[in-house]
Design goal:
Blueprint: E1 2-5, H1 10-21, E2 28-35, E3 40-41, E4 44-53, H2 55-72, E5 76-89, E6 93-101, H3 104-121, E7 124-130, E8 135-138
Parallel strand pairs: 1-5
Antiparallel strand pairs: 2-6, 3-4, 4-5, 4-7, 5-6, 7-8
Helix pairs in contact: 2-3
């Protein structure tokens, strides 16, 4: 698990993919990229999200998620997660998950499950910032 200040860069994503490809027993890698949307809420357009996190607990919970995925999916070789803190603009990346497995089916299922667990378990909070610079705290959803 890596926590990065600001958006997840394309270079970080490339590094995650390169690292995944070093696992020679993996035949499939599943990648999830979470991007900040410019939702329209109450007539206001979201321009960014300011992510706050209890970083020590994020690291601990992420390791629990990783261990759970490795135990639930016997073909998964590795799970890598990068999550942003701080301000991430609409169109920028705030989350990247790469799951490597022997076969594609477990890679895709485990990647989806990992993202759901991240949304449920990680102590990360989102403050949506609107184009008029007003803001509000957003509740995590499972969608």
């Amino acid at each position: 698990m890596i926590i990065t200040k600001g958006p997840v860069s394309p270079a970080m994503i490339s590094e995650m993919i390169a690292k995944a490809c070093e696992e020679l027993s993996a035949g499939g890698h599943s990648l999830f990229i979470g991007q900040v949307r410019n939702d329209l809420i109450g007539g206001k357009r979201v321009k960014a999200i300011d992510y706050s996190a209890y970083e020590e607990m994020v690291m601990s919970e992420a390791e629990k998620i990783r261990s759970l995925i490795l135990s639930e999916y016997n073909d998964v070789k590795d799970v890598e997660i990068v999550h942003s803190t701080g301000v991430v603009g609409a169109g920028e990346i705030s989350l990247c998950v790469v799951v490597s497995a022997g076969h594609r089916h477990q890679a895709t299922e485990a990647c989806s499950r990992t993202v759901e667990l991240i949304k449920q378990k990680l102590p990360v909070w989102k403050k949506e910032i609107f184009e008029d610079d007003s803001s509000h705290w957003r509740l995590n959803s499972k969608h």
